[in-house]
Amino acid sequence: MSRVSFFRIVLLMLASLTAVFICVPLAMLIVQSISPNPVLWPKTFTLKWYRMQGSTIIPAVITSISISFPATLLAVVTSLPLGRALVRYDFRGKYLIRWIIALPIITPGVSLGLAYLQLANTSFLRGVHPWVMLVAVHTVLVFPYTARSILAGYEMCNFILEEASATLGARPVQTYFKVVLPILVPFILAGAVVGFARSMNDFIITMFLVQPDFIPLSIQIYRSTSYGTPPLTSALATILLLFSVTFALIAEYTLRRVGGQ
Amino acid sequence: MITGARFYRLLLCPFLILYILLVFIPLLGLIQKSLVKERTVEIELFHPSKLPSLEWTFKNYGTLLFHSYYRKSTLNTLIVASIAVLLVIIFGTPIAYLLARPGMAGKRILEWIFSLPMFLSGVVACYALFIVMSRQGLLTILASSLLGKPVRLTRTFSAIIIGTVYIILPMFIRTVHPGFKRINPELCEASYSLGASEFYTFLKIVLPLALPSLVAGTILSFTYVMGLVVVALILGPTPVQFSILPLEVLEKARGLDLNIPLASAMGAVLLVIALAGQAIAEKILRHFYGGVQ
């Protein structure tokens, strides 16, 4: 239906203005990171801030990925059996488990961060490298996203396919890897992308756990806001922004594939 | 290999181990810490030998309730959350309605833009806003020319509100969107064919039907803002001038004036508020729409 009413025009304007409100600050961030001096719109562009920040950007990106990648992998591996248990078996407490899965999303960052700070300072964990602690904590942060998506995947799987595979003589493990897992792949990917983004973007929980010699990108950006020159901070923030935009594009693509099936 | 009906127990193990070790025990530790006097950064729960010598107290919660400074922070937190959520309802509701209508040009791009902040780090979003609000920034120049006098935006209360709206708007739209999507388009058609305008239909038919999801979205956004710290940290005034509860947790846990039990008490209060908000919102959605979405 296409009724062009006054109301509809007002709505469209409101939506467009809000979209501008979302996009313009991000665009200005990128502009500022490639402008030689801090003016609204520079006449020439330069990459010097990135070159100057090279020694900070690269280790920070590596640190971020070295935390988020293993965490996402671990979250997927732990989500797979949980999804199967929840979809294929009947037992009490299913609803409760679905609720508990969301706890790391619901709990405010400061509460969870403070709890982890105390956990990390408890005597038997005091000597552990911050990387181990951060990977463990980020696995929990990623888990709700991978679990939710993989659960949706199992719900789409047709049980008859598994039975057919079994009647044809495949063993349960074989059926799982040859029949079930391939159906799940797009769901695993969709959950992993959102979870990876969540992990890389996390600020407050990571903030409680970082040590001076092991600083991921999001924390590095915050640190440079307090004692760096603005364009250097912009360069760092632009790098994380590019990651975010990539994740949003991949998520849009995989979700459309999942939806299309 | 275990097979049969009990196999699910084995399948549940990885999840249970992960959550018991890294969700339940740390949060239990947080609550335990909020009930003692010892200011050390460790959970006594793990050292049974230390438990008997602990001094248990409700004083930390008493401080939060009766100390004027923390009352002020609590009030500030509530004010920020109320204003930001009110703005988000005003802007977010019509946008969610628009995105739920079928066949609109450019819908996919708009949807993508409104989903973008969910993939964005809070730090990046706030720093981008910081640039726009700085002295040379676009928003400052626009606001100054509109008002006819120089405007200072960074490190102000308004900056916190703008930043908070930026971060929670997509969340709100996402929660409310299914509520609009569920409404049968034929109801609107019927209203149009009887001569009602789209605006009148929106007010009298669409809004009442979408109300439960609007209420749920409001509660979720509100409780989320209560725990949000990054906006105040980057865009807000110094904690001495304007303090909110989550910022206070950070100050008391990492700052010079270390007080872990008090920080834990604030953390526990924020946790309870968030859990209650989620429970109520889910109850509303389940009651009116059936099933969690």
Compose a concise summary of this entry.
Helices cover 79% and strands 0% of the residues of chain A. With 261 residues, chain A is mainly alpha-helical. The longest helix of chain A is centred in the N-terminal third of the chain and has 41 residues, at 48-88.
Structural summary, described in words:
Chain A folds into 2 domains: 1-46, no CATH class; 52-260, MetI-like fold. Chain A has helices at 6-33, 48-88, 94-101, 103-106, 109-120, 130-156, 159-167, 172-201, 204-209, 217-227, 230-260. In chain A, α1 (6-33) crosses α11 (230-260), α2 runs antiparallel to α8 and α10 (217-227) runs antiparallel to α11. Chain A is mainly α and 261 residues long. The mean pLDDT of chain A is 87. Chain B is mainly alpha-helical and 293 residues long. Chain B has 2 domains: 11-57, no CATH class; 77-289, MetI-like (MetI-like fold). In chain B, 73% of the residues lie in helices and 0% in strands. Chain B is built from 12 helices and no strands. Chain B has helices at residues 7-34, 59-66, 68-100, 107-119, 122-133, 138-147, 157-181, 185-193, 198-226, 230-235, 245-254, 260-289. The relative contact order of chain B is 0.12. The interface between A and B is large, with 93 and 94 residues.
Summarize the amount of helix of chain B as a percent range. over 70%
- The quaternary state of the protein chains shown equals heterodimer
Shape of chain B: globular
Query: What's the CATH class of the largest domain in chain B, please?
Result: Mainly Alpha
The percent range for strand residues of chain B is under 5%
Described by strand count, sense and barrel closure, the largest sheet of chain B is: none
- Segments of chain A where pLDDT lies below 50 for 5+ residues? none
Gap from first CA to last CA of chain A: 27 Å
Number of domains of chain A: 2
What's the number of extended β-strand segments of chain A? 0
The tally of structural domains of chain B comes to 2
Computed over alpha carbons, the radius of gyration of chain A is: 23 Å
Q: Structural class, judged by helices and strands of chain A? A: mainly alpha
- Which CATH class of the largest domain in chain A is shown? Mainly Alpha
CATH topology of the largest domain in chain B: MetI-like fold
Tell how many strands the DSSP assignment of chain B holds: 0
Counting helices, strands and paired strands, the structural category of chain B is mainly alpha
CATH domain fold name of the largest domain in chain A: MetI-like fold
